[in-house]
Design goal:
The protein is an alpha+beta fold. It has 5 helices and 18 strands. The strands form 3 sheets. A 9-stranded antiparallel sheet has the order 6-2-3-4-18-17-16-10-14. Helix 1 runs antiparallel to helix 2 and helix 3 runs antiparallel to helix 4. The protein is globular and about 55 Å long. The two termini are 30 Å apart.
């Protein structure tokens, strides 16, 4: 049996809202360490990986491994019934056909309860390896969203270039071009505004802004976002959730050679190459 309570329903609401446009159906894999999700979009360009660790819940109980197949559009409809400050409790029996969600508001003594029908989803689990990235950027999540949104008004693609001078986001489109340059910045009074750049070698890759703007819907989960780059692997965008839990997005770069310019490389290429 699974029983897991979140003190704030908005945590799951924000997670689901940030991935529902990338993935329609997915499995929530539950075990004694927490609840995990991993799914790829239909075009095999983006991969989402979430881990809500057991300590993010209070209480948390999972007697045996359970896989909950969920349609995210349906889950979104149920989660709309919850206010952000409601406590959310997830329950499922062993071999379940429904997921029970209850929302409790201590101020109004109101308890809402819903049963969501589950799906049988045949989904391959991909083992994502630990990777040493050439460049790691930690920056305010709202600033990353602003950069991606502003540049998308001019182009479909962005070149992210990390060097000893900083990290540069640049685009070029029919109406012109634009760029944003960030350098390491430390604000002792407001650490959420810090920009930290770790670099072992220069990196320059091109990505679809449509996907990056989608990833930025997770901005409400964390004040900071971590962006990891290497020339041989997909981009990693990571948001920290409730301490040690996380929501990660992986995005394949666009081809850099002139013949295949603006062709997005499938993540399956990287999976086969790196045995993900």
């Amino acid at each position: 049996m699974l029983e897991a309570r979140l003190d704030q329903a908005q945590v799951l609401k924000k997670v689901v809202d940030s991935i529902k446009d990338l993935v329609q159906d997915c499995n929530f894999d539950c075990n004694d360490t927490g609840i995990a999700l991993q799914a790829m979009d239909n075009s095999h360009v983006a991969l989402v990986s979430m881990m809500l660790k057991a300590e993010a819940f209070s209480p948390y109980r999972c007697d045996r491994n359970i896989s909950l197949g969920v349609n995210l559009t349906s889950l979104t409809k149920v989660l709309r019934a919850a206010q952000n400050e409601d406590q959310l409790t997830l329950k499922a029996e062993d071999g379940p056909d429904v997921l029970n969600l209850s929302f409790e508001n201590s101020e109004s003594d109101r308890i809402s309860e819903y049963d969501l029908k589950l799906m049988d989803i045949d989904q391959e689990h991909l083992g994502i390896p630990d990777t040493e990235y050439a460049a790691t950027i930690a920056m305010p999540s709202n600033e990353f969203r602003r950069i991606c949104t502003d540049l998308m008004a001019m182009s479909e693609s962005v070149v992210i270039e990390a060097s000893k001078d900083g990290v540069k986001f640049a685009c070029s489109g029919d109406i012109g071009n634009g760029s944003v340059m960030l350098r390491t910045h430390t604000d002792l009074d407001k650490p959420d505004n810090n920009v930290a750049i770790e670099l072992t070698e220069p990196v320059s890759l091109t990505f679809s802004l449509k996907y990056l703007v989608n990833f930025c819907k997770a901005v409400g989960l964390s004040n900071q976002v971590k962006i990891c780059l290497s020339n041989e692997v997909p981009l990693l965008v990571e948001y920290t959730i409730a301490g040690s839990s996380h929501l990660r997005f992986y995005l394949a770069p666009k081809a850099s050679d002139p013949i295949r310019n603006n062709v997005v490389i499938s993540l399956l290429t990287w999976i086969r190459k790196t045995d993900w």
